[in-house]
Amino acid sequence: MQWLVFALLVVGSSVASFVARERRFRRRWQNVELPAITVGRGAYREGPASGAMMPSAPLALRIAALSCLVYGRGVTTALVTTALFLAGVPLRAVAETTLHGLLGYLAGGYGFGALAAIVLAALALGAGNDLLLRNHRHAFRRTRNIALASLALHGFVWANITFDGHIVASSARDVAASLAHARVIAAAAFGHAALMLALAYAYRAQLSALTPAERRLEL
Questions:
Q1: What are phi and psi for residue 165, nearest 5 degrees?
Q2: What is the pLDDT of residue 212?
Q3: Which residues pair with 38 in a beta bridge?
Q4: What are the phi and psi torsion angles at 74 (to 5°)?
Q5: Which residues have CB under 8 Å from 216's CB, separation 6+?
Q6: Could you tell me the pTM of the whole model?
Q7: Per-residue b or e along 78-117, where b marks 16 or more CB atoms closer than 10 Å to that residue's CB
Q8: Phi and psi, residue 53, nearest 5°
Q9: What average pLDDT does the chain have?
């Protein structure tokens, strides 16, 4: 039951935030020209035609933005839930899984993995916002950099746990369950980062495109 409430809270708040931001920033995408298309037939009639504008952000980027919001809010909500559990609120199911994941990342990431994963989750929220805002100067670069950092961290943690290179701080503590949790989390986060990186490059032109007004200012 706790996990159901947790999932509904994370997904519900992420969707609400996504809808509000997508509507607010849709105009920035509607000012981006679609690629030129070839019109006419024949040697002297065929030619490129442009001028049509995008109706909104591409569907793949909207899904990616939503996934970033869910990812970031999932981590932050889990941390808040754990803090409440430690303060005495009966939220054991979510808190235990979170604590296992944190301990696994500490062991699998040589002590810094947990903190780095929390920072990257916060940055993922910003990446989702960047994709919807479509700031032509920063959207692609920030999304790419966050995805690369996430690939490096989660890939390292997964490989470190998988090939038994982790550090166990105390032989009296059995960290097997924590490492198992961290391995699953690292694999999922690595896959998400790989998808983000692929989409950033696939839509680099649209993310970096100047609107007609911005093009005139550049001139």
A1: -100, 5
A2: 61
A3: 48
A4: -60, -45
A5: none
A6: 0.81
A7: beebbeebeeeeebeebbebbbbbbbbbbbbbeeebbebb
A8: -105, 155
A9: 83
